[in-house]
Amino acid sequence: MVNWIWLFFIVISVVVAAATGRMDAVTQAAFDGAKNGVTICFGLISILVFWMGLMRIAEDAGLLARLARLLSPLVRLLFPDVPKGHPAMGYIMSNMSANILGLGNAATPMGIKAMQELQKLNPNPDTATPAMCTLLALNTSSITLVPTTLIAIRMNYGSVNPAEIVGTTLAATAVATIAAIALDRWYRHRQPPLAPPTAEQPLGKQEHRSAGLLRSRGSGKRPAT
Questions:
Q1: Where are the domains positioned within the chain?
Q2: pLDDT the model gives residue 195
Q3: CB of 48 within 8 A of CB of 151?
């Protein structure tokens, strides 16, 4: 879907530029965008390598494992339909721990593995389970202690204090996570709507036949149809 959106933007831009005689501006913007993209990527490499290396040290030191153990009671509360000891629980805790520490690259494969394990528990493979929806909501709104990528981008653009967003990012992601959990709980506990009566058996006939069956059970006679 996203690819079609980008294709739509590109086609519209080219058509409008051709109609207004500004194809040279489109060509120049394409080259400038490619140049800026490469410049930003190379500028971020050293910063991201530093942060990812630092986080890898924390991971090897057992920080992620300890954080996962601390999150275990919360994960059991958020995913009550996942059996205790199931492999999905380990991947979910690792995914949440990596997201909290800003390890997006480490969180992604853990999230994919968690989804694959949750799919094994899915009685209807064509429909997402409540646990899958909860995991997706938590990934989208995860609390982040260290926004590594944002700090790296701010450093690349010469920010005087690139880490000053840590507090506001923590507050924003905390509010987003609370909202996501609240909505997830609400949808989990919402009662499904009653199925409407079929066209072959209208509501009035259903009620009449049900009343007849009740009377027949009390009298021992079969109701008339």
A1: 44-189
A2: 41
A3: no
